[in-house]
Amino acid sequence: MAPSGGRGAAIDIRSATKRYGNFVALNDVDLNIEPGEFMTLLGPSGSGKTTTLNTIAGFTELSAGELSIGGRSVVGLPAHKRNIGVVFQHYALFPHMTVGRNVAYPLGLRGVGKAERDRRVERALDMVKMTDFAHRYPSELSGGQQQRVALARAIVFDPPLLLMDEPLGALDKKLREWLQLEIKRIHRELGTTFVYVTHDQEEALVLSDRIAVFNQGRIEQIGTGRRLYDEPETLFVGRFIGESTILRGSAETSAAETAITVAGERVVAPKRLGKGGDPVMLLRPEKLVLVRSGEPVPAGHNRLRGRIGEVIYLGSGSKYEVSLADGSAAIVRSTLVDGGFAIGDEVDIAFSPVDIKLLADDDRAD
Ligand code: ATP
Fold it and tell me: What ipTM does the predicted assembly reach?
């Protein structure tokens, strides 16, 4: 899992619970992070990501549970003794200090001598491509430049662990995408452990070795982006990562398969394991095939009748929203820029049983 080095610290969080009065912000969370890994904590607002990060940093004490960094328990160890680099969304640079002095600050705290300090500051600024700005003040920098300086300041003392809480949250999309690649490169070059908080699933997919998906103080699933997209274990994860179509119907499971009646039509799905009420079907937009009503579909595919509700031009292809007879909507993505379909056209969507994810219906509110 670790991309390089082995210079990073492992993190082991076990049965972590954090309560604020009666409110449970973290509920029995287990999380192992490998040395050198890029781990992203992903989830909606209030799901417990920042609480987890602050616990690792030492800014928040757990109500119960274990936390070790680099194989050593840090419960009760104050933040400044944990030797961790931290970057927040709102650049906390010292306004009255130049970029160079901002970056040198953690070295001063650690009693590093002048020559060594200058050498390390230069290396850190070089790493974030800000060498030419060493004599500027923070107010003379753009938001993206300030974040790069904050990053330099967080890595200048070679911490085995870097924590970042929405560091790109305040920046515009283009800059964010470019800085994501920069952060990825810096992670690769340093080989240290990165823990990154975001609510942006695309950002998580771009950056991470693995992603932990948070929901209401719990982790729903931990895995590579590909794994979460292809094999979501819960409906929440399936919906949070990537685009999806969710279809509901009544299910009957036989020895070989599960048949689900959706909008009056029968859909064949893989045999359902486990019990519970009717499962939901999750389908990815690139797995759906769109044909004119009644035209042939690939062998073995299911077919559902619908009508084109929306056509969205994506530049590299097109996306269609197809309304089904029961009022649900399917999202179909095609690499054809012009598939020849227009709003109102009668169509069939086709999909293979193997591309259906059957999941427990953990939320009927959508
Ligand atoms: P966001 O993306 O909005 O920062 P998050 O997933 O990082 O969300 P946390 O900041 O970890 O969420 O917060 C989890 C829950 O704990 C939230 O409901 C929040 O209101 C609550 N919480 C956090 N800090 C405190 C506190 N000091 N006192 C009371 N409740 C708190």
Answer: 0.93
